[in-house]
Amino acid sequence: xxxxxxxxxxxxxxxxxxxxxxxxxxxxxxxxxxxxxxxxxxxxxxxxxxxxxxxxxxxxxxxxxxxxxxxxxxxxxxxxxxxxxxxxxxxxxxxxxxxxxxxxxxxxxxxxxxxxxxxxxxxxxxxxxxxxxxxxxxxxxxxxxxxxxxxxxxxxxxxxxxxxxxxxxxxxxxxxxx
Length: 178
Prior knowledge:
There is one protein chain. The chain is 49% helix and 15% strand. By secondary structure, it is α/β, with parallel strands linked by helices. It contains 8 helices and 6 strands, in the order αβαβαβαβαβααβα.
């Protein structure tokens, strides 16, 4: 995960990730003072990564619907694997609208808090990918239920952590392996 705001610093972190062998990088977005600044930052990171490393962006709900659509359309040229939580959690109609108006896959993260919440995301057609954090959704069994529901709906699931300890990370890895 890259959170550096300056394009050169973000690119340097991306280069380090590439050299370390990471196959995917997530860039935090949504804090730039302008759309052009955001674009320069994403462009710098993509250039540092090269075409073979996957690039995800995560707005953590920082954009409004219109802003998200504009930003994502402008950033799609940088070969985005997915855009995580572009609009505020709880705005499933807005998330669904963004998904319908852009080409990049949309991921729901903060909206996936338990099995019922994941079901609402899927029913709203709000995301292509659901981010499952076992410690947020109620543990491994609940995480597995969500993954099964996501697969049945034809969507994808990504398992991750919430800055957990080694035990939490190991649990998430085991869940992902299932």
